[in-house]
Design a protein that fits this description.
Blueprint: H1 9-40, H2 54-87, E1 94-101, E2 104-108, E3 114-116, E4 118-122, E5 126-133, E6 138-142, E7 147-151, E8 157-162, E9 167-173, E10 185-191, H3 193-201, H4 209-219, H5 223-226, E11 244-246, E12 252-254, H6 257-265, H7 288-299
Parallel strand pairs: 1-5, 4-10
Antiparallel strand pairs: 1-2, 2-3, 5-8, 6-7, 6-9, 9-10, 11-12
Helix pairs in contact: 1-2, 4-7
Bound molecules: heme C (HEC) and copper (II) ion.
Length: 307
Amino acid sequence: MPPEASTLAPRIDHLMLILVGMSVLIVSLVSALLIVFSIRYRRGSTAKRGRLPEWVSREIEIGWTAATFFVALFIFWFAAALQGAQYKMPKNAMEVHVVAKQWMWKLEHPNGRREINALHVPVGVPVRLVMTSQDVIHSFFVPAFRIKQDVLPGRYTEAWFEAKEVGTYHLFCAEYCGTDHSKMTGGIVVMPRAAYARWSRGVDEHGTLAQQGAQLFRQLGCTGCHGQSARVRAPSLAGIFGRRQPMEGGGFKVADEEYIHDSILQPQKDVVAGYTPVMPSYQGIASEDDVVRLIAYLKTPNGGSVE
Ligand code: HEC
Ligand SMILES: [Cu+2]
């Protein structure tokens, strides 16, 4: 077994042990009975045959049905509680963006620090991964943390972990994604908090993700329509993140990461009520990395409110 290096790892191993244990128990019981009965009731043996009395067979029937039901209920409860914990993102988590492509992992920290096939994180701090792919389906797999999450093009998927022990752990792609799939590996470097703080201060000259996003917002001409002095009638993007937007044709959508991502790459998909869909698609112009930056910028308090 790989080391149990995340807070959820022992619980997942525990569940697996219980499932394996129960399966072994049931298989042994059934095999033992099979052997005993084949010997006892072999042809020519003098063992007593014939029907069981009515009440005995009824009690056996009710007994095994109820036992199976409660075992299934117990497994469901145990597994569902764990799955709930896996999908409940901790509030104070540090956010890391993951963009997968054939055949590498690109990771971006909120302060703009970028890494390829390596992720530095502090020990004892929950880390939330927001992931997307630039081409085909990949899967982010860290055995020591017991996390495996598919990474899909055109969608954001999430996973989280809290590393328990300092060390370097393997990262794999667990979804066959072409020729060099087997080389799409990396390392998660779990550091003591102070060392991580020092490491992350070595910021590169590009600025934070949000600052880079602000720059892109101008470079890609978003301001031409969404800026305050724009001539085109387009909705203001100031404070857009988390807002409930009325949609053309009825209904509402919450402006989350996926919504903003799609607004940029497939603007015709969700049109804001009261506006003409004149926004061009940025498919092929803005890469997934660019979209990550634009979203980081639009999430800041005064993001999107530039001239
Ligand atoms: C040609 C003008 C134009 C340009 C350029 C433009 N947009 Fe838009 N955008 C619009 C219009 C009009 C809408 C509203 C209709 C719709 O939802 O498609 C819109 C909608 C949006 C929305 C959804 C807004 C909401 O209130 O729900 C987002 C997010 C957005 N744009 C982001 C961007 C970003 C980021 C860029 C630059 C990469 C950009 N836009 C460039 C015209 C533009
Ligand atoms: Cu892959």
